[in-house]
Amino acid sequence: MTGTNPRRSAAHPRPDMTPADHAELALLLEVASTPKPGNVDRHRDHDDLRFEHFLTGAVGSRPGLELAGRVDGSGNSSDGPPAIGDAFERAVRGMSQQSGGNTQFGCLLLLVPLVRAAATDRLSPDGLTNVVEATTVDDAAAFYRAFEHVDVAVGDPPADAPDLDVRRGADAVPTLRERGLTLADVMDLSADHDGNAAEWTSGFERTFAAASRVLDDDGPLPDRLARTFLDLLAERPDTLVAVEHGRERAEAVGREAAAVRGDLDAAEELAGRYLDEGINPGTTADLTAATAFVALERGVEL
Amino acid sequence: MTGTNPRRSAAHPRPDMTPADHAELALLLEVASTPKPGNVDRHRDHDDLRFEHFLTGAVGSRPGLELAGRVDGSGNSSDGPPAIGDAFERAVRGMSQQSGGNTQFGCLLLLVPLVRAAATDRLSPDGLTNVVEATTVDDAAAFYRAFEHVDVAVGDPPADAPDLDVRRGADAVPTLRERGLTLADVMDLSADHDGNAAEWTSGFERTFAAASRVLDDDGPLPDRLARTFLDLLAERPDTLVAVEHGRERAEAVGREAAAVRGDLDAAEELAGRYLDEGINPGTTADLTAATAFVALERGVEL
Q: In this structure, is residue A218 part of a structural domain?
């Protein structure tokens, strides 16, 4: 009824949950996990971006996540399942029905292909590579249109491609079509400086590695995800921090995360400080949501 | 795609959200609202019943909420929409896919008829009375079956009706059929001592009154809901506290809530103490979720 549930084993702790259900739950668990220094979490709000905006964004994004999880092709396309780009744009539009602004754009950019892979029983690096390689110019156009629903903090476009600035929204679509760029191509242009695009072009390498660590870890899932957030932040500079504060600051944040890695009490101090300083490692939160999704699909207990 | 969205005005802040969406969001906002003395909230867990169990319960209950919101009759019943009782049982079964136990049984008992009324554009005391009066013996049977999915703390059955103890689950169904008891009849038997049953038999009187107060209140919605929780707790003894600690203690809790009414800072102290003492006004939390749903449907901002 609400997406396709691919051969979920009866031993799975959530036998009736579809990939779309798990994606929504991943969004909720991500924002609930604490401390995630610099991000809204169970214990911290930003001034105008609060916990309840994330809850609302998660529920609102469902129709798009369900499109991503639909693989039977019925009702939405003359041949084949709904397009990944349309699913993403629908998710972002639904997410935007709250006044906090951009809550989960980056999370959804990762979750949509992950849901599609899970719904076709290919939730693996190879499966994700297949999903990414199958994207089309239409998917790229839908991705650009999604920027019209919400303000997203992004870096400048490649110097040789000013026409492809995502901030142009639908105005960039003619350029996409002229150049025949698929969504995979668009991600490829940003993969060297954007952590989410890098997942698209690497078979979601960091997501799968982090999910394995979550499955091997102990304790309540939100605590595991908070530890994963610190790991991810320590291992590579956060894209959003680099966009907003420069590469040097992003690298310093990575070192500070490394210093408190594995120690959630020590991370509390960092969380207070980043909130005061306006340091928001949002891309690392996106990766944490993606990690939660893979861990949920693989049967992590709740 | 995910339920029916009845004539939601374009001026509504969440034009694309269906009643099922709002019901799920109400569950999330209820658990996020803090302080709600004695209940799991954004800042407090119980030992084995934690915030994440409520998030999981909310997502898991969706298929049942969607059945409640489906009014076109397609796919689930030969004539007419899915039965209210089946929707409730499905919601409880989905909710139970987590290890915390009973997270939202009572919330769902209120939300299912509210969703049905909203989906048919009759979200009013009269509309709820119609939904309740239309229930059947099959609905009552499904209600009893729902108790087999999760342990629910309940009081003893009426002295003259030991066969109708809900803890008997499906074993009570032959008695229901013999006596021709509808779900409305079952609620009627408990309405004098059970706050949720009393809503069923009164056109959801307290829910609608509280929702009006929420709409007139100011500030972030979770704060409004926390104030509503205190109001509701002050105005009538909580059923679950009465079941677990006796009527006298439930009345004392009401007086303590009245003393901090309107003052969330003062309620923080109460929240800490009730957690230590194992006082859990869960029925008042159920009413708070129902209140959130009506406020969401009526366009409260988020």
A: yes
